Structures are given as structure tokens and as C-alpha cells.
């Protein structure tokens, strides 16, 4: 089973070309959602996320694609956090789970309706008061103290008060511990206030973690803010003001997972089919065009000469090789690399430590840190290093064997399509030259 959609050229990945198990939750979408895109089950979204695939179609490469190519990694980062959150929640004692009741569908619908009503009323009021002295202004709450976040004190062994571990602050991006009330707490408190939600109960399990998640993925100015509608955002915050139960994220997770399954995942598979970097693809396409031009020039010269008609058939070789190479290059593949089932290393892979294992690489990447900073890579060392490489060196960059059998099978199919296309079109063009009478010019 192969991809049925027309392949689209991937976004470029350097500055020269930049611009890279089924779900365990009840909220998971159907695993058959990949079928309409012609993606084989071996490369399904669930298999990739659960670790059932080989390079270059693993979760690590999927994350790299979203960071460096799609610039939309926050969806996968949030989704992976939620899966882990559900697992950790299920391992809590019942007495702790009871502190945060399940968020029901009726409550969720009520919150959505309430959000729509509030938005309409606020819009009507703003329209009526526009241009008057009573026009509502944006309330600046960024510096307002949050009375509900006063850090409690616990007796220390030295007889002095010390801050409880659960209230030790984190930096704005949630990646570094600091002293006092964390900026993430201020952000989450402001977010609750903006939607008119009550400040949450701090005794609920994972409340501190949820607060950081809100600051990073939901609150305005979050370094990994999700692309949520105002209704979804309001409904989520009102749910989280009541409970930290995983069901509070149900609607948002459905939106995020839908985007991953129906947009990011198919795009990732198309991009992964390319076995060469953009310079190699352009080089392959140039060779294809050169082969076609060579066949045409040879055919014209032999036709205009007095040579035997049979010599014209040799033009077929130029047409066949040129068209097949051009077709494969248009699909993002280099036939030479495919012959060895190799692919070029991506720029961010080229400069990774040669002695680091795959697991070490995963652990070192900030993109896999749920509470990490923004998904920006412009300052990563590989960007400047890759820019300094000349075009010839990029065309012949380091190669690595493609380990995933299903991906090799898709590439085999595209290669076969290229050969068939080259043969048929080459045969037609050769027949045209064979049918033209001799020129006898020289």
C-alpha cells in the first residue's frame, strides 16, 4: 500500500533553503484515520508514537520535522505530555484522585456555551461603548499580585521557615527553578482571571505541573502556545480551575491529535520519502533535464543526417534515463541513493556527536522537554556550520542506510513508477524520430 496523494516538495531545511501502539487514552481518535491518505499501517501515526518504527520514521524524526520544517512542534510536545500525564494519573492512589473529580461532558458543554455567551455579550458591549468615555480598556494584570499563590511556609530543620518544595518558582518558560512564586503561577493566575474562572484548589494532585502547562501552552505569551480558539481556551481554563483530572483536557487533546493525525503526520511521511537534501534533488533534476536534452539533440542530428534509421533508436537511452531521473527527482528522490537504499543525513544530524547513541540524542534535545523553552533553532550550532558548506559538499553529504522496511517499499514503488514513465515517454519520443524521413543534409 503506497501513498496515493501527489507528493509535495518538502520545505527547505537550511537558511539557504529553510523557509525537519495505539493511543492509550479514551479520547484518542480512530487509528484508521491514516487510511484516506494511503499511508500503510506500518507507518501509521500510532506506530510512530508508540516506537514501533525504525529510522528515519521514529518519534525523534517526527519531532525534528515539526521543529525544523513545519515549525509546529508544540502540538506533539503537548500530546506526548498528555499521554504521560494520563499514565501517571492512573497510578495515583484513589484518595488523591478523589480530590480532582472527572470533568463530565455536560460540564464541558456548559463551559463552551458560557464562553460563547460571554464573547457575544462582551462584543456587543464594546460596540455600544466604542468611542465613549466608558469604552472598556484592556486590563493589565501582568504585574498584579495573585493572592491565591502566596507560598506557604514549612518549618525547616534549622528552626527557620523555608518554602515548600511544591511552591518553588520556575522561570517563565518553566525550564529553570527559581526562588519565590514562579512566573508560571502568575501567568496561569492571569489566564484564569481573563476568562472569569475561579482560582483553582492547590491541594489537587499535579496542580503545580498543570499550572506550568497553562503558562507554556495555554496562557497568552506562552513560549509554546497552542493554536486554540477562544472558545476552546476558555472552556479548558474553566475546566482546569475546577479539576486537574485528565478529562479536563479532553476537547483540546482531540483538537491537537486531529491536527497531528490529519496534517502533520501525512506531511511527515511525504517529507521522509525524500532521500536527498534539496541541493541533491536539484542536481538530480538537472541530470534528468540534461539526459532529455541530450536525447533530443542526438535524435535531431541523426535524423537530419544520412545515417541509417536504426541509429535513431539510441536516442531512447537519453530519453529513458533523463525522464526517469527527472520523475524521481520531482518526487524528491535520487535514483543513485535509492539504489543503495541510502538517504542524506539532515543538517541537524550531520553535526551531532558521532559517539552519541540515539537515546542520548533524544535526552539532550530540548524539544522533548515538555516544560522547555520556545521551539527556536536559529541559534543552534549546526545552522552556521551548514551555511558554510559549499554546494558541491552538500550534494555529496554523508549518507546513512534507511532502516524502515515500509519506507523502502514506498521508495521502491516510486522508483518503479519512474522507470515505467521513462520507458513509455521515451518510447513515444523515439517513435516520433523514427517516423521522420531522412534529412540527408550531411
UniProtKB/TrEMBL annotation:
Superkingdom: Eukaryota
Protein name as it appears in the record: Uncharacterized protein
Lineage: Eukaryota, Fungi, Dikarya, Ascomycota, Pezizomycotina
Amino acid at each position: 500500500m503506497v501513498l496515493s496523494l501527489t507528493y509535495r516538495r518538502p520545505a527547505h531545511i537550511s537558511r539557504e533553503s529553510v523557509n525537519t501502539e495505539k493511543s492509550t487514552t479514551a479520547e484518542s481518535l480512530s487509528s484508521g484515520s491514516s487510511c484516506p491518505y494511503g499511508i500503510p499501517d506500518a507507518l501509521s501515526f500510532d506506530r510512530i508514537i508508540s516506537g514501533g518504527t525504525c529510522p528515519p520514521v521514529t518519534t525523534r524524526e517526527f519531532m525534528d520535522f515539526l521543529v525544523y520544517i513545519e515549525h509546529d512542534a508544540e502540538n506533539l510536545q503537548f500530546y506526548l505530555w498528555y499521554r504521560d500525564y494520563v499514565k501517571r494519573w492512573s497510578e495515583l492512589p484513589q484518595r488523591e484522585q478523589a480530590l480532582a473529580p472527572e470533568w463530565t461532558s455536560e460540564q464541558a458543554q456548559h463551559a463552551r456555551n458560557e464562553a460563547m455567551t460571554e464573547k457575544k455579550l462582551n462584543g456587543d458591549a464594546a460596540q455600544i461603548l466604542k468611542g465613549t468615555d466608558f469604552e472598556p480598556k484592556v486590563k493589565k494584570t501582568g504585574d498584579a499580585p495573585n493572592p491565591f499563590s502566596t507560598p506557604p511556609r514549612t518549618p525547616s530543620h534549622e528552626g527557620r521557615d523555608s518554602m515548600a518544595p511544591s511552591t518553588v518558582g520556575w522561570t517563565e518558560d518553566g525550564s529553570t527553578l527559581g526562588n519565590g512564586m514562579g512566573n508560571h503561577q502568575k501567568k496561569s493566575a492571569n489566564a484564569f482571571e481573563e476568562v472569569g474562572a475561579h482560582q483553582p484548589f492547590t491541594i489537587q494532585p499535579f496542580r503545580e505541573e498543570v499550572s506550568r502547562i497553562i503558562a507554556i501552552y495555554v496562557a497568552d505569551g506562552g513560549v509554546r502556545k497552542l493554536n486554540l480558539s477562544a472558545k476552546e481556551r476558555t472552556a479548558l481554563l474553566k475546566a482546569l480551575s475546577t479539576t486537574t483530572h485528565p478529562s479536563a483536557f479532553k476537547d483540546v487533546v482531540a483538537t491537537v491529535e486531529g491536527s497531528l493525525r490529519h496534517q502533520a503526520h501525512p506531511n511527515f511521511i511525504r517529507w521522509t520519502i525524500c532521500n536527498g537534501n534539496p541541493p541533491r534533488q536539484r542536481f538530480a533534476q538537472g541530470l534528468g533535464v540534461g539526459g532529455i536534452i541530450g536525447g533530443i539533440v542526438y535524435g535531431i542530428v541523426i535524423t537530419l543526417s544520412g545515417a541509417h534509421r536504426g541509429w535513431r533508436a539510441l536516442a531512447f537511452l537519453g530519453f529513458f534515463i533523463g525522464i526517469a531521473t527527472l520523475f524521481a527527482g520531482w518526487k524528491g528522490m535520487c535514483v543513485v541513493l535509492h539504489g543503495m537504499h541510502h538517504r542524506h543525513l539532515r543538517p541537524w544530524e550531520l553535526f551531532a556527536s558521532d559517539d552519541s547513541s540515539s537515546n542520548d540524542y533524544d535526552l539532550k534535545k530540548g524539544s522533548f522537554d515538555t516544560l522547555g523553552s520556545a521551539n527556536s533553532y536559529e541559534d543552534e550550532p549546526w545552522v552556521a556550520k551548514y551555511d558554510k558548506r559549499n554546494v558541491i559538499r552538500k550534494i555529496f553529504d554523508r549518507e546513512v542506510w534507511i532502516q524502515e522496511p515500509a519506507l523502502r517499499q514506498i521508495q521502491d514503488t516510486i522508483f518503479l513508477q519512474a522507470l515505467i514513465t521513462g520507458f513509455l515517454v521515451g518510447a513515444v519520443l523515439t517513435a516520433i524520430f523514427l517516423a521522420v524521413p531522412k534529412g540527408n543534409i550531411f
